[in-house]
Amino acid sequence: MQAAGGDFVQAAVYYRSRAHAFVVVQELHEGRAERNGAQQHQSFRIDVCEADKGYVVHAELPGVSKDDIQVTIEGNQVTIAAEAKRDSERRDGERALHVERYAGALFRSFTLGNELDEDASEARFENGVLELKLAKKAQVAGRKLSIQ
Prior knowledge:
Elements: E1 10-17, E2 20-27, E3 46-50, E4 54-60, E5 69-74, E6 77-84, E7 104-111, E8 116-126, E9 129-136
């Protein structure tokens, strides 16, 4: 989605996983530096699978250190933020001919179909892939109200 002036705005993509909706919401930006005074974020690829007791998320974060990753869970919304750092030292007389590797903020936020149990969820990072095992909160059975 592109707004007036060429700035990208939030977009939502909907997927169906069993009976639950999976909503991916992320800020879509181009570039690596600040534009119009706003910090730019780059996205990354994720896979999301659902099981009876929870979700498994795999996120590709090559070149990112474990210490530069933050995962936040609020209800049924998951946010992954990271910082990709690149060594840009050049030897004397050396100049870059072509640079494609990204350095800067990485961001992805998505909403799942069930509330998540933060205490029972876990995260692991190995070989540039973040694995989240997100436990679903136990469903609370409704109760019958007596009418007075």
